[in-house]
Design a protein that fits this description.
single chain; alpha+beta; globular; 4 strands; binds zinc ion; Muramoyl-pentapeptide Carboxypeptidase, domain 2; 4-stranded antiparallel beta sheet
Length: 154
């Protein structure tokens, strides 16, 4: 009996895998893009809530406590995980361009609220609860153009 307990304890570290936010975010985005159009209004709200949750989780992995640093970390994270690109569209106006690899205009319907929620929660946790993020220009209306997300810090 004591031996069994000991061996179970020894096995434990192998079973506890680190949560992989990159895989989770990609999985969420793939699922959302595949289910575009379902329950439109509700689906968009759900996508934003899901983004918010994953953004809050991701914030725990980041170290920066200033906007430039957090955006740099997000940009590296996005690229490293093969999600897409995060770049400043207009840094003076706190506008970010956020892309998901290979997204179509249709994918954006569900992915944009997801991205908005994710970035907002990430910035809330890293900087201040007062931060809000809103998509001000959706590239989904024109092929190949970026979606712009405006960060507001009162
Ligand atoms: Zn968009």
């Amino acid at each position: 009996m004591p031996q069994r307990v000991r061996s179970r304890i020894r096995e434990e570290p192998a079973q506890l895998s680190e949560p992989d936010e990159g895989k989770m975010i990609k999985l969420a985005m793939q699922t959302l893009s595949e289910h575009y159009g379902m329950h439109r209004g509700r689906g968009k709200r759900a996508a934003r809530v899901l983004g918010h949750q994953l953004g809050a989780d991701l914030a725990g992995r980041f170290v920066s406590a200033d906007l430039t640093g957090v955006v740099e970390e997000l940009s590296r994270f996005w690229k490293r995980n093969g999600i897409g690109n995060v770049v400043w569209h207009d840094k003076d106006n706190l506008e970010l361009a956020v892309r998901y690899s290979g997204e179509t205009a249709e994918d954006k319907q569900m992915l944009c609220p997801f991205k908005e929620g994710l970035i907002e929660a990430l910035l809330k946790k890293r900087l201040s609860e007062q931060v809000s993020v809103k998509e001000t220009e959706c590239g989904g209306k024109r092929d190949g153009s970026n979606c712009i997300f405006k960060i507001s810090i009162p």
